[in-house]
Amino acid sequence: MKRPNILLIMTDQMRGDCLGIAGHPDVKTPYLDTLASQGVLFNHAYSACPSCIAARAALHTGMSQEHHRRVGYQDGIPWRYEHTMAAELSKAGYYTQCVGKMHVYPLRNYLGFHHVELHDGYLGHPRNASVPYSESQFVADDYFYWLREQKGISADVTISGLDCNSWIARPFVYEEKYHPTNWVTDRSLDFLRRRDPDMPFFLMASYVRPHPPFDAPACYFEMYRDKKLAPPHVGSWEDGQSLKDSGRIYNSATGPEDPELIRQAQIGYYACITHLDHQIGRLIMGLQEHGLSDNTVIIFTADHGEELCDHHRFRKALPYQGSVHIPLIISGNPALTGLVPHSVCQNVAELRDIMPTVLEIARAPIPDSVDGKSLLPLITAQSSRYQSGHPFAEVGEQERIFREYLHGEHSYGALSNHYIVTEKDKFCWFSQTGKEQYFVLEQDPHEKEDRIDDIECRERISTLRSWLVHELNNRPEGFTDGENLIAGKPYPPYLA
């Protein structure tokens, strides 16, 4: 049997709840909803270390963060891993290509891909005047190189004054065809045109949006301009007063204080998602036009989410759902994977699981260094359970031991944190202050009620805390003595 092609669609900073099919009240994602309706939607997919570099290390190596060693955000550390997803697929006879964001070091490190057409978005480190010429983003980044050729030497996405971590939003200043989201789709479609038809392919279409700047083409802003939008999720536990000063800083870790700026951030973020969705639609139609749909498995996910003013916060790196919960869809011809169409999987999944899943689809060996688990056993007809009167099958019911919990973390200065999440609840620990939080997600999916002091939850909290102690035991930071959590330990973003 001919081995299937694999299309991995990766987005940057897209929340797991920002899909129409996931029940979002405002965001419109018709093409992604179609993918999910023809495949399996994972309701409890997470990023264990929710920022760009660490999350992508988990994706490309299949390792947990304590093994790939990136537990926070730090540029300039070389990527040297014996086994990567693209390298293993290349060895197995696949032609491998990435278009878009890699966010590795050096910038032109291919991680085993045969070819990379690079666009990392705005990165401060390779724009520093002190970096070598070959590491300058204006030299190494193919999109910026192309945009200068198209529009002139001064062309750049920063021409509008938007920042790469800002909540400020405004439409793209050039014609839509010059937008980086369109560029990734254009180059991916060109790959389909010139691929070797006798080789199976692994194509990673890696989009920078909806990561800021929030600069979708103007027509997408118009879709949300006059729409009444659901407000951010704010609960009973936040100290909004302490965030007011930083809420006036355009690229801070908090959302804006001004309600109109909050609304503009929402409009800009949702506009970027719908624009992205339509470009993914172009890619899906391209597969159809090339006669590839029946023999291509599509996986859609993101590296992490976006707080988008939930709990007065912005960006990522925190343990809350807006930051750590990500979308995950596996779709394609059921004959290729045995998946049950129109399905929802409730098991806790993580980015490290994508590499072994892809390798199993390709019938390639999975290296011993991989910590993740293939998701295929969760989505096949043999493990499914159909709910009477429900439009979707719920899969994975017989596989509850797949992962009882997930340990996540992020080095983030005074807000450095760890979390334990299950299908039903979450325990958070802030490692510098010792602050703890507990949320019953099955009743409170937006984490509006912190129940850490609830007597009824004391036993469950103790269990989750013990799991975190187990995960952190023997870590170099000294977070635990084997019985208790110890706050205030130095916590660098890279484990030497």
Structural features, described:
The chain is of the alpha/beta class. The chain has two domains: 5-402, 3-Layer(aba) Sandwich (Alkaline Phosphatase, subunit A), CATH 3.40.720.10; 406-472, Arylsulfatase, C-terminal domain. Helices cover 27% and strands 16% of the residues. It contains 14 helices and 14 strands. It has helices at 30-37, 52-61, 65-68, 85-91, 137-140, 142-151, 180-194, 218-225, 259-289, 321-324, 334-337, 354-361, 376-379, 458-472, and strands at residues 5-12, 39-46, 95-100, 115-118, 201-210, 296-302, 328-331, 343-350, 384-386, 393-395, 406-410, 417-421, 426-430, 436-439. A ten-stranded mixed sheet has the order 4-3-5-1-6-7-2-8-10-9, sandwiched between helices. Strands 11-12-13-14 form a four-stranded antiparallel sheet, covered by helices on one side. β11 and β12 form a beta hairpin. α8 packs across α9 (259-289). The longest helix is centred in the middle third of the chain and has 31 residues, at 259-289. The chain is globular and about 60 Å long. The relative contact order is 0.17. Residues 382-393 and 395-399 have low confidence and may be disordered.
How are the elements arranged and paired?
Elements: E1 5-12, H1 30-37, E2 39-46, H2 52-61, H3 65-68, H4 85-91, E3 95-100, E4 115-118, H5 137-140, H6 142-151, H7 180-194, E5 201-210, H8 218-225, H9 259-289, E6 296-302, H10 321-324, E7 328-331, H11 334-337, E8 343-350, H12 354-361, H13 376-379, E9 384-386, E10 393-395, E11 406-410, E12 417-421, E13 426-430, E14 436-439, H14 458-472
Helix pairs in contact: 7-9, 8-9
